[in-house]
């Protein structure tokens, strides 16, 4: 963590000598067993899925009773605590601040709690540091174990941490927090816009609302107002449902498979890749979980949909810029431009876990995905859906792209600010550019 130019590095201390209390999780005979957990209860007991690379995630929670909680000693969280995973997936970070929806929370035995001394160490600064490459590289060097990586607490104590003066910690935390807020707002806006398009898809092609409204004798004016569609679009829908192998579908529509409206192929392994973009290598390399690097030229130039082929299943990405999908992805391309959104939402609703052919790791084959049954309406109705959903998804793409730019700005500034390579005043231009979308 050496400084450059006229800048000075901050004071460096190991965690065992820093103003931080390390708290291990409970173990022993009272440690909860599988039958002690429930979907609701007195105390949230964190699992590996709750502490992610992006912070705390409460989508899937396990709880223990008040009686079980009373038998445990260590590992109870206070607001302002920071959680680090130390077994299996190492170095995931969670900040238990006032936004967390649960008041009673415990860590499991594969985590530790960092509790900073408030008079000397700002919790939000510590959280920023733990998310930086400066910290993560130390975690990698100190980890042990091949089958299940782990970072014992005795080794964790030797990790180094920079300690700027407390006012500087707060300034750094504020500037990085501003970028984090922008990232979260852009992410939520993109998700909201995509959810609006998905709701229209469900109404038209899953629930068949226009058809059912006609069957119920509802007036054209009422249907158009309630479903927010034009009379011209309403006229494209039939007024009757008929039986099919997929259940009732609108009259005149067909049952087909994904391959009837899209092509599916595998990605390829590039010859070379870079971790960060450069002047020559700025094309995103995509894996099943998202971007994993950069290459010099695209494999795909047109819009496509990517999903994981091996290792990761069930995540879908709409890609609208040139890219290189890696060999652990499947590339889905609509047979017509106007079918793109219809293909995306059809594939997104498939439960990929049912298609998993892997034993040691998840695996999805082209043939299995291609053969999934779907309902195929008329081209006119699919085209109308394209006209309605295209604008929503284009705005979603804009916010997603801006999200990516701000993430790059934050991840570039974070190690430089925390190491003392640059100071907050010098970072303000990058922050202002990121906030205005000029990164």
TrEMBL record:
Domain Type I restriction modification DNA specificity residue range list: 27-194, 250-379
Keyword DNA repair: no
Matches recorded under InterPro entries: Restrct_endonuc_typeI_TRD (IPR000055), Restrct_endonuc_typeI_TRD_sf (IPR044946), Type-I_RS_S_subunit (IPR052021)
SUPFAM superfamilies cross-referenced by the UniProt entry: DNA methylase specificity domain (SSF116734)
Keyword Transcription regulation attached: no
Domain of life the protein comes from: Bacteria
Keywords assigned: DNA-binding, Endonuclease, Hydrolase, Nuclease, Restriction system
Residues in coiled coil: none
Gene3D superfamilies linked to this entry: DNA methylase specificity domains
A GO term for molecular function: endonuclease activity
Record-stated family: Belongs to the type-I restriction system S methylase family.
Protein name: Restriction endonuclease subunit S
